[in-house]
């Protein structure tokens, strides 16, 4: 019952894995929030310092306008960032440094997939295909080929629940350590 294959096979048919807005332009007050690598961290999205772009510019990159539930992966500059888009981020966009993985949630749980892509095995594979010396990046074609193995949906949900509990305990211990 495991799903095995390249990452691209887990996407909804009408959308493909792609990157976002190439040149963000000037900050636009009240504009469309646009996530960059500085916003996409390991398993979380930080909205502090987020840039807002012109609505017309965002519309030019309609393929990466977020709907919620997608998995974002940093593919330029600071690699390793991977997180799930929250429903309240619908309508936002991403920069060129961030890939949008529009997964089919009938095939794979988005949180499970983000843990999987953020795992050592997937990061090692992605590290093997990265290009560049001064400005490191992962080609979209390579990201589409990332090997993915996922158990049945009920098992994916169990794994996510277990990992979230471990993460909460780790944060609790970190807080205690900092207090001491």
Question: How are the SSEs ordered, and which strands pair?
Answer:
Elements: E1 3-6, E2 18-19, E3 32-35, E4 40-41, E5 44-45, E6 51-53, H1 55-60, E7 71-74, E8 82-84, E9 93-94, E10 98-101, H2 110-118, H3 120-129, H4 140-144, E11 147-150, H5 153-179
Parallel strand pairs: 3-9
Antiparallel strand pairs: 1-11, 2-10, 3-6, 4-5, 7-8, 7-10
Describe the structure.
With 180 residues, this protein is of the alpha+beta class. Helices cover 32% and strands 19% of the residues. The protein is built from 5 helices and 11 strands, in the order ββββββαββββαααβα. The strands form 4 sheets. Strands 2-10-7-8 form a 4-stranded antiparallel β-sheet, with helices on one face. A 3-stranded mixed β-sheet has the order 6-3-9. The radius of gyration is 17 Å and the shape is globular. The mean pLDDT is 93.
Keywords:
180 residues, 4-stranded antiparallel β-sheet, 5 helices, globular
Low-pLDDT residue intervals, each spanning 5 or more residues = none
Give me the count of strands: 11
**Strand-residue fraction?**
15-25%
Number of H/I helices: 5
Helix/strand order: EEEEEEHEEEEHHHEH
Helix content: 25-40%
Overall form: globular
Tell me the distance between the termini: 47 Å
Largest sheet: 4 strands, antiparallel
Structural class call reads alpha+beta
Rg over CA atoms, rounded to whole Å, is 17 Å
Average pLDDT over all residues: 93
Largest sheet strand order:
2-10-7-8
